[in-house]
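Deliverable D4.2, example record:
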Amino acid sequence: MANHDVTTCKIAVLAGGWSDEREVSAQSGAEVARALAEGGFANVDVLDPAAPSFFDELQRGEYDVAFVAMHGRLGEDGAIQGLLEVLHLPYTFSGVYASALAMEKGSAKVMFDRVGIPVPQGRVLDSAEQTEQELDGLVACLGLPLFVKPVGNGSSFGVTRVTERSELADAIKKAASDGSRVLVESEVEGTEITVPVIGNDEPRALPIIEVVTGSDFYDQRVKYEPSELHHVIPARVSEDVYALAQEYAIRAHKVLGCRGCSRSDFIIREDGTPVILETNTIPGMTSASLLPDSARHYGIEFPELCRLFVEMALEGRTS
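Output generated by the structure prediction step:
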């Protein structure tokens, strides 16, 4: 596909969907469609997989590439990717396996640990119903504060920072409210950063963003405020730590089997150790989003970035 003019491709931007992140996904899709048009793509449609007419529209459209701008359940977890595989329609970003693995935080942590990336101490709970003795055991083992989050959700939905033992039971029930298993982790103190990575077989790390929240953590309110309020690029860490965090992010991208892009979130401990929190396989694609902000600082404007993602979707395909 190296000599192929990808701007002649007909693109279906998939946005919206069924998850808690439907609204921001729709915003991502609209901004991606505009960027593709600015980049010279003449045939771009935005389709909502939650619409009753979606499947018929996707089949009738004779699209060359699906640009997946969906976040959370059924969009980032391998479900929509499975449908696109069945339809033999090339699509942006990671495949079924990598998407599902990254979304399942407990399994992803196992993979990170396997390749030497430090992870927070934590436990995965199969049930929201925990006895008082089990709750006491969690606190005794992991300490306070704790973060309690759904194993299979994204964008901070269902996440609670627990500072008192009395808050733990309700936090676990909240995290499990969508039927997910629950991850309970020790809080890691330090500087919060995120490391975007782009590429398929030879991924490269983009400039690291230091996330300054003014909040207990990078929650929903902070995530979608103007980026200049919370993004410091490049992150204010030493050269050695900067290089190590980028190395870990590339390592995470590879061990999960990501394609196109990923964005790994870390806390830099006081001793300079980057501790990974999670890897996102479809980061936000809005004006306030982290990966596009980092790419701009690298010299890649948003229309070019979207074109690169289309090229990566077609990379290695002969038809």
